[in-house]
Design goal:
This protein is an alpha/beta fold. The chain has one domain: 3-Layer(aba) Sandwich (Pyruvate Kinase, Chain: A, domain 1). Helices cover about 35% and strands about 10% of the residues. The C terminus is likely disordered.
Length: about 120
């Protein structure tokens, strides 16, 4: 039986990115995973992940999932960042629709309980 490590963060946001990337790298050391899917509206976190995987000599395909067109408040992947992702061998799945618009409206606030439902 494989022992698993679970990480909890007190707050959401970019401050956790490095910790999550390190956890992914550690998990990839077990070599039973060869694809990492990352939600990244602007593509910047996916770039960080792909670069760190390359630096750590971890071979894993990175798939970047971005937001749907109606998510106007989030930055989109720029052509420059798209080129970076492609150069790093990442696949981009752009404009993925939310499963539920009721859930997705201001999703971070809903997920973390900042808005009353």
């Amino acid at each position: 039986m494989r022992e698993a490590t679970i990480y909890y963060f007190d707050e959401y946001g970019e401050r956790n990115t490095e910790h999550v990337i390190q956890a992914v790298i550690e998990r990839l050391e077990e070599r039973d995973i060869n694809t990492v899917i990352v939600a990244s509206s602007s593509g910047k976190i996916a770039i960080k992940l792909a670069e760190r995987l390359r630096e750590a000599n971890r071979e894993a395909k990175v798939i970047c999932i971005s937001d749907p067109p109606q998510a106007e408040e989030w930055p989109k992947i720029t052509p420059k960042d798209q080129a970076k992702l492609e150069a790093l061998g990442a696949e981009i799945i752009d404009y993925v629709p939310y499963a539920s618009m009721a859930y997705s409206w201001k999703a971070p606030e809903n997920v973390y309980g900042a808005l009353a439902c």
